[in-house]
Structures are given as structure tokens and as C-alpha cells.
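Hello,

I think I submitted the adenosine monophosphate job twice by accident. Can you confirm which output corresponds to this input? Input:
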Amino acid sequence: MNLAPPKGTDDILSPDSRAWRRVLRSWDSWSERFGFELGMTPLFEATELFERGVGESTEVVRKQMYTFEDRAGRSLSLRPEGTASFVRAYLNAGIRGVWKASYSGPMFRYEKPQKGRRRQFFQVGAEVIGTESPEVDAEIIELAYRFLLDVGVPAVVVEINSLGDPSDRSAYEAVLVTWLNDRIDRLCADSVETLAINPLRVLDCKVCREVTMGAPTPVEMMSPTAKEAYETVKQRLTLLDVPYRENPRLVRGLDYYTRTAFEYIATGLDAAQNAVGGGGRYDGLGEKICGRAVPGVGVALGIDRIILAMGDPVLPPSTEAFVVAAPGFSDEAAIVVSRLRGEGSKVETVFGGRSLNAQTKAAAKTAVAVIITVGEGYAQGQVTYRELRSGAETQVSIEEISQCLKP
Ligand code: AMP
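Support: Only one job matched these inputs. Its output is below.
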């Protein structure tokens, strides 16, 4: 059988997976610092959730969902994004008030696969449900910005816009449709199709950029309250030292966005995949899902693209020390390994009763910095500690090894 993973999916293995681990850890740490509890929702949901939530007119729902019937004939879909599930979970759990959840995991979209555009891709994300406060929008924008800086994505630009309230958005859509219809003969075939179904998305078409350059923008049609909220978000970002750029054409692809919308652009990547993350406010989503209004704001970032943007990061070694055993000391070496791991060190060893020479060679191949030899000195609580780079070799007491390994 063909051993390659399905088209548009990847096996993420060492050494590439080391950068992934770094990214996931950083997200875990930053989201926790910002007060987000971990949330986990199913990888598949009732298809209806995404049709109602993400929107039947969106490309994601029309063309990209992995939809199947289970054995009892229910229509289910692999999740193409996380937000709809979190709003469903919030409503289902009967939570009242402000709730913050962060997540990480795979999402599924039937895309034309290319670099940075996969059919199974990974996102980290965060949602704050139950508040309309624009300060929260700024907080969530800050969270993802700090995280991207921490993992070392160079030259990140935060772009923001406001789509106004739902009534502003509908009024804007009507004006935009008229404006685009007047220029329909200059739009590409894809945009003509999009115009009939999801007009805001025509602004995203790179081919039609020249035509749509002068199109009206949502900001021009915003209500005073939505305008004030947008001003608050911008002031907060300035206060928090998060640089941003206003992009009045930023509309995002999903139906549920109202008010603040934002994206993180890694300017070092090709335009086709330089959006490493994005999000916005979705105050109308609860109503779409089940008729209960509940405000919320969220962000999602694509790890596949973050890894591309990171380039070749210099990462600390995944193993700090290798423990090898002199003949007859394999049990004692196992005890030392177990002890060091218990103390928090990243330690490897060689199994299978190989000679000391073979073990040392195997260790040196791993680019490890330190080799610890367990032998005669063990009875006196001593091991040999050798730093490979300098070649320096010392006797160290077993109690002190983890101290020596600390960077
Ligand atoms: P979205 O849910 O479309 O707003 O996407 C949020 C982020 O997820 C994007 O900025 C990308 O980084 C990432 N993303 C979305 N779709 C894909 C995909 N097919 N392959 C890789 N990353 C993706």
C-alpha cells in the first residue's frame, strides 16, 4: 500500500516536530498567563453547527468541509475551525458571564494543498465569550502578538479593521454589491461567483485587487457606538505597546464577524500564506446557532504557517545529557537516569548491553553536550561528567548532576 499520508496532510516528526513543541508550549504558557483555561471540544460536530455558525454562504462550508454520515445516518463534519464549537459548548454548559478558553488542535478543510495551505492543519486559539467590552478585543490581540514574538516569527504586522454592528454590516454589504455590480465585467470568474454568495470576500481576491481598490469600506458606514468601540480597541493597543496597521479592506472569510476584525501578517512569507492568524468579534454567532445572543471575541493562529515563518530556529537540544554504563553497571546507570529525569533533566541512554565504546559513539551522534558515565565510582556516589565541546572530564556527585546540567 502507499505509505504516504493522505493528500494535504503531513506526518510531523523529529527533528521538525521540535519547533512544533516549542510553539505549543509557548501558546500554553501565554494563554495561561492571560487567564485562559484549557478547552477541548470534539473534532467532529453536527454539520448544522457549521452551516448555521460559520455560514452556508462561506467557502469553508460550501466547498471545504469533510462531511459524512455516521452509522445512524446523522450528518457530521470534521471541524473546519474552533469558534462555533466553543460558542455551542458555552451555551450547552449553561455558563453565564465571562468565560475564557484556549485550545490547540487540528482543523480540516478540503483545500487545494500547497505550502502553508493544508487539508489537515493545526491551530492554536482563544475565545472570550460573554462580554462586549472592546478592551477584551485588545487583550486578545495582544495575547497572540506576544505569543508570535515569543516563538520568533519575524516582522509580524497586526492589521485591524471594524465591520461595524450587524446592521452596519448589512447596509455596507448592500452598498458594496451595487458598487461591484457596476464593475462586474472587470471581475474574474471566481469573484463573480463569490459576489452572488458572499460579496465581502470579493475584496480578498488578489486578481481583482486593482478593480476593488477604490471600493467603499465598512468604516465609512459604521454606527457611532461601533465607531467608539473601534476607537477604544485602537487606544488600548497603543497603550499596551502593540503596533498595528489599519486595513479598511480586511473583512475575513467567515459570516459571523461583527465589529473588530484583525489579522497577523508575517511579512517575510509569500502573500498567499502570510496570514499566520486572525480573529474578531462575533456577537451574532450565538443567535445564529440557537437563537440566544451571546457576545464573544476570538483569535486563531495556524501553526503550519508559524513554523514556516520561523525559518530555521535555533532550539535548545532536546536531550541535555546521555548516560552510559561501564561493564556491569547497567542497573546503576538506569537508577541515575531515572533520578535525573525525576529532577527535571532531559536525559537519554542506550539499552541492549552494548560496550561502553559503542554507547559513547551512539551518544556522540546525537549532538548531546554531556556524557555521564556510571561505573566504579558509583559506590562512592560519583559519576564521570564529560563536556563534549571542551572535552573537560570531572568526577561529580550524583546529587550535583542536575545542578551541573542547568544552563
Ligand atoms: P481562519 O480560521 O480561516 O481565520 O484561519 C486562521 C489561521 O489558520 C490562518 O491565518 C492560517 O494561519 C491558518 N489556516 C487557515 N486555513 C489553513 C490551511 N488550510 N492550512 C494551513 N493553515 C491554515
